[in-house]
Design goal:
The protein has 292 residues and is α/β, with parallel strands linked by helices. 43% of the residues lie in helices and 12% in strands. The protein has helices at 25-38, 57-71, 86-98, 128-137, 159-172, 185-197, 214-224, 230-237, 242-262, 277-283; strands at residues 15-19, 45-48, 75-79, 103-106, 143-148, 176-179, 204-205, 207-208, 268-271. The structure holds flavin-adenine dinucleotide.
């Protein structure tokens, strides 16, 4: 069994890239092209999201199987509790293991489209800590990552209870925490300090999503309620030119990343959205991930 925390120890700053299963053949081809380009930065592993409501579950493993074949790197499948019984989750885990998946990013998931509250199905799981427990009770050697929220999860009663819940996931057997995207590093530093005070000592890996245009930023941040710095929004609003907005967004993400590295971030998880250009610009000249 590989413990995911090994990528983030002894001066090693793990680098991971998050993909999602595309809906078309053209999307798949472009994803694999991006993966090939991202290999230049020495990533430690790739992850692939798991569709809400089970829409793309089979595809997640298909994408990861191909990424693993092409890159010879370990891969992580995201997995949620949405719409599945514990037995169905066990079956997915067995299949993921059979296909060589190394790690699971264990999540509760969001309520399906049109619903506002997460409801476990009969015989299903209610929270991600139960999913971590279930994975650990199975005979597969998965490393496990869980989600953390520097700006507090939208449904949490308050920051303290969100941390208590995070601690439950850690105690259930998570190896590392990957954070929700955020654009103000102070939120991450505060969260990291609060985790330590709460007795959470596993690596906390910042998750960054470079903004490449203003519309995308507004959509994403309204979905997960991340705060955008006013200065960044102002700059993006100055000019509608796509190339210009891309440059501004990526420059912000690069500065954010360099500041995190200077302040001892464990590593870096990039939400690359199946495209490599923004990540390539962000990572130019940075020493992260495995040596080539
Ligand atoms: P949980 O940890 O279960 O927490 C959910 C809420 O319940 C929180 O408010 C928490 O404070 C509270 N809570 C937790 N345990 C308890 C308890 N025992 N009692 C009371 N309250 C509790 N979504 C997808 O659909 N597919 C993906 O592939 C995907 N990948 C992601 C990857 C990362 C790195 C991140 C950060 C998020 C991802 N998400 C994904 C989104 C995620 O599913 C949502 O943020 C979801 O709303 C919460 O998932 P969770 O695992 O954090 O839930």
């Amino acid at each position: 069994m590989m413990n995911l925390s090994e990528y983030y120890t002894a001066g090693r700053r793990g680098l991971s890239f998050e993909l999602f299963p595309p809906k078309t053949e053209a999307g798949l081809a472009s994803l694999y092209e991006s993966v090939d380009r991202l290999m230049a930065f020495g990533p430690d592993y790739f992850t692939c999201t798991y569709g809400a409501g089970g829409s793309t579950q089979g595809l997640t493993l298909d994408v990861l199987t191909e990424v693993r074949r092409r890159t010879e790197l370990p891969v992580a499948s995201h997995l949620t509790c949405v719409g599945a019984t514990a037995e169905e989750i066990r079956q997915f885990l067995a299949e993921a293991n059979r296909r060589g998946t190394n790690f699971i990013v264990a999540l509760r998931g969001d309520p399906p489209k049109g619903e506002t509250k997460f409801q476990a199905v009969e015989g299903g799981l209610h929270y991600a800590n139960e999913l971590v427990e279930l994975i650990r009770s199975e005979p597969h050697p998965f490393g496990i990552a869980v989600a953390g929220y520097p700006e507090v999860h939208q449904e949490a009663v308050d920051a303290q209870s969100d941390l208590d819940n995070l601690k439950r996931k850690v105690d259930a057997g998570a190896d590392i925490i990957i954070t929700q995207l955020f654009y103000q590093n102070e939120d991450f530093y505060q969260f990291r300090d609060d985790c330590v005070k709460r007795g959470i000592t596993i690596p906390i890996v910042p998750g960054l999503l470079p903004i490449t245009n203003l519309k995308q930023a507004q959509r994403i941040t309204s979905m997960c309620k991340a705060k955008l710095p006013a200065t960044l929004v102002e700059r993006l609003s100055e000019n509608e030119d796509a190339d210009w907005q891309f440059e501004i967004g990526v420059q912000h993400a690069r500065e954010q990343m360099l500041d995190l590295l200077e302040n001892e971030a464990a590593g870096m998880h990039l939400y690359v959205l199946n495209k490599s250009q923004a990540a390539e610009k962000m990572l130019e000249g940075c020493e992260l991930g495995s040596p080539a």
